[in-house]
TrEMBL record, chains A, B, C, D, E:
Protein name per the record: Propanediol utilization protein PduN
Recorded superkingdom: Bacteria
Listed Gene3D superfamilies: EutN/Ccml
Cellular localisation: Carboxysome
């Protein structure tokens, strides 16, 4: 997982059916000092994160398991490979 | 997922059978200001994206689930690890 | 796997149910001379690593197998993609 | 997927049984202008690519599906995580 | 896959049960001129590689299939995501 800041979203009408209804947020990866690292990514939001919030990002197969309403995630066709899985309240160092 | 601009395509006659009939697009990853980041990739197009369009890219196992006509994607032998899964209409920031 | 130093933790109240009860540590990847490399990540702790300790990090599907109490890990919905799987006692070179 | 140029091969006698009989090519990733990007990788050749040819590379689980003779790839123990899956005839931009 | 040089090992007493008995080697990724690239990784040795030898490295799920004695690797809980799968005798360019 890594830390990121939500900085916006993208609008896409023509997309894979498995992405319909998902909020696709633009996230900027950060370090624990809130400084930007690497490049922006697009993450599907599963925790109602708002613009400006600091979040936890998961990539790969784990990202497809982030929809808690769906009990049997492995059987659902889902192209998503990046999800917001938590809102960071505090960095303890 | 990440953002990219479609800048061309590659022609390949001698290739894995699972890639036959797929449009293999050259995509340049971008940030939300449409500036290029990292290096170009080759992505299979599943949403009819044209040259110059901004798109969403998925990598890994998720990319093999992007063919919506195929209901049981996990059972199809498919080498693809990178797909265009959406056309970006707008960046909201 | 790679080497990292545990430098802190994050607190997240609103998060994926599969992350509840997990210690989410901020880890700084290092080389075998203990110099920092790349950027910080967030790893779920499965070996009771403390702040300042040098640890082994696993990413991807392997990270979801790090909970030894759970015998049938593949069937548990778990979004985690990064785990601390060992405490490094010594670097032999 | 990404583009690469085949620049050589490695000889390995002592190796995982699943790699025996595979041609292990040294490939240099390139962009669509044929300029080198990143560092060299080792890819198993599944399309009879020769030294100097431009090829398509797949990584991860997809690479293990590149052996077309094997119908039920998922059941074969195979450590390979990088395959040449196509020879690029032309870059259209 | 990529090329690396074995430069040491790490000792870890407190670790995931699936890593017990595995030799955890410090490897420095290299290019085909034996120059170092990127940062060091930790790889489980499955081919008895010694310090100073040039080896082939596999990452991800493929790394968990590198234990040839285990016929049904997919069913064994194993956190490892990086294995040495071959010793390089010669670079042909």
């Amino acid at each position: 997982m890594y830390m990121a800041k939500v900085i916006g979203s993208v609008v896409s009408t023509q997309k894979d059916p498995s992405l319909v209804g998902k909020k696709l947020m633009i996230v900027q990866p950060i370090d624990s000092n809130k400084n930007p690292i690497r490049s922006e990514e697009i993450a599907a939001d599963s925790v109602n994160a708002g613009i400006g919030e600091y979040v936890l990002i998961v990539k790969g197969a784990g990202a497809r398991k982030a929809d808690a309403k769906n009990k049997d995630n492995n059987r659902v066709r889902d192209v998503n490979d990046c999800s917001i899985v938590g809102i960071i309240d505090r960095f303890d160092k």
